């Protein structure tokens, strides 16, 4: 869906009524976020919604508008002036996305949302640029997450990241020899069973003016997770192409921030680190009981090869801190029990710094994404430290408190203010990739004035 600055001859126009306004009684019974088709004319259609009173209402209206437009086959949409036009426009533009790249020729069928034009009265030029920049990042993240594992592996993910390189965005890729030279034994261990091998993808958006802050975004990039020798059941393995949802969100955020570079506060540099690997079974694959040395010198005994995300993140977090990040934020589809605790709509937030936690919570709210903070209860780490020859185990094989324990494991690899977002269940909804996290990261960076 393309945002237009000037209204065209619309196929569908959306009007608003106040909740106290009967609008000729036609609007009676409408609920916030609902649309009602008012009239169908030969040249265009008209719909009605209650005027949104919150950004959340506006997003619901936007999603409903995109749905109605597809049903009617409308190509040009016009929306009357309302509060929160950017929230409405962003939701409408993102709502209709579908991945049709793998359909046969002529299978697209219905009108694609990308063919639609949307004009929202009251949307400023700056807001339009911000919505479009964010949409680019979300779409890029969705395409990466949605792609099958025979298309996106560590090497091709690195290739896609290289495609983001521009005058303002620098991209560097470490291959297996580079990773080995840096001592990233955990990332190497996870990738050992794969023919593709690992990649460490680094992107940098330099600061405008004198650098005063470096925000590092770290993404888990497991492009497919079989569970390794701790093999997943068939039902649990299907869909594991999505185990790089954190990496996709981080790369999507960098794509959006590159588009919005002039809105990034002066002095703020943003870096991204994606630890990419496939967790496969093979002659060189890690085994339960193997011990590996991490980039920070700690040793880890692998008790569960299906707890691999925390391993690749541990090395990437170490590198981000060692390279001078002021603060570090990681995103990962990390633990299944997070879904049991919080479902698919909200992410679990763990943080060792109150200012960072508050900033991320506010950014998530601004983006229309939800987070819920869980505690870093230090005593839970003891079960990862006992009965092992190494400094740590990667799992105690107990589901109770598993999301907290995984976050505590990651904390062993950071030396800066740090936040961990467990987005298990968020990266896909109803079998459609969401790009969850792009909005939160972008809003957080843009708020660093």
From TrEMBL:
It comes from Deinococcus wulumuqiensis. The keyword Hydrolase applies. PANTHER family: CYTOSOL AMINOPEPTIDASE, LEUCINE AMINOPEPTIDASE-RELATED. GO terms for biological process: proteolysis. InterPro entries: Leucine_aapep/pepB, Peptidase_M17_C. It holds the Pfam family Peptidase_M17. One of its GO terms (cellular component) is cytoplasm. The keyword Heme does not apply. GO terms for molecular function: manganese ion binding; metalloaminopeptidase activity. Gene3D superfamilies: Zn peptidases (3.40.630.10). Keywords: Aminopeptidase, Hydrolase, Protease. Belongs to the peptidase M17 family. Residues 304-311 form the Cytosol aminopeptidase domain. This is Leucyl aminopeptidase family protein.
């Amino acid at each position: 869906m393309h945002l237009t600055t000037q209204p065209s001859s619309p196929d569908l126009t959306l009007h608003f009524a106040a909740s106290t306004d009967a609008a000729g009684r036609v609007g009676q019974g409408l609920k916030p976020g609902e649309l009602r088709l008012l009239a169908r004319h030969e040249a265009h259609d008209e719909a009605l919604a209650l005027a949104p009173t919150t950004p959340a209402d506006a997003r619901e209206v936007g999603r409903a508008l995109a749905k109605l437009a597809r049903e009617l086959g409308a190509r040009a949409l016009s929306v009357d002036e309302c509060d929160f036009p950017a929230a409405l426009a962003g939701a409408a533009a993102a709502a209709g996305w579908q991945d049709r790249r793998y359909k046969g020729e002529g299978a697209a069928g219905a009108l694609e949302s990308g063919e639609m034009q949307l004009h929202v009265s009251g949307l400023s030029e700056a807001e339009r640029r911000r919505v479009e920049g964010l949409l680019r990042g979300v779409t890029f993240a969705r395409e990466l997450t949605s792609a099958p594992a025979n298309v996106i592996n560590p090497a091709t993910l690195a290739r896609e990241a290289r495609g983001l390189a521009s005058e303002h965005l620098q991209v560097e890729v470490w291959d297996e020899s580079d990773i080995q030279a840096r001592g990233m034994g955990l990332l190497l261990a996870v990738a050992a069973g794969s023919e593709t091998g690992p990649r460490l993808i680094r992107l940098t958006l330099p600061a405008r003016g004198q650098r005063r802050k470096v925000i590092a975004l770290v993404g888990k990039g497991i492009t497919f997770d079989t569970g390794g020798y701790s093999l997943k059941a068939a039902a649990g393995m299907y869909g594991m192409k999505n185990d790089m949802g954190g990496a996709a969100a981080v790369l999507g955020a960098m794509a959006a921030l590159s588009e919005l570079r002039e809105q990034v506060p002066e002095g703020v540099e943003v870096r991204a680190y994606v630890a990419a690997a496939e967790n496969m079974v093979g002659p060189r694959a890690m085994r339960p009981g193997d011990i590996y040395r991490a980039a920070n010198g700690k040793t880890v005994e692998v008790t569960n090869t299906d707890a691999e995300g925390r391993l690749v993140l541990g090395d990437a977090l170490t590198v981000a801190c060692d390279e001078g990040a002021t603060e570090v934020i990681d995103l990962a589809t990390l633990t299944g029990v997070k879904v049991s605790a919080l479902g698919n709509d909200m992410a679990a937030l763990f943080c060792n710094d109150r200012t960072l936690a508050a900033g991320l919570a506010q950014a998530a709210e601004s983006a229309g994404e939800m987070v819920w903070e869980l505690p870093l209860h230090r005593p839970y780490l003891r079960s990862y430290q006992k009965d092992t020859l190494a400094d740590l185990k990667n799992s105690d094989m107990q589901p109770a408190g598993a999301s907290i324990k995984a976050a505590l494991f990651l904390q062993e690899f950071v030396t800066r203010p740090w936040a961990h977002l467990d987005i298990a269940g968020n990266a896909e909804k109803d079998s459609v990739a969401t790009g969850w996290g792009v909005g939160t990261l972008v809003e957080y960076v843009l708020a660093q004035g």
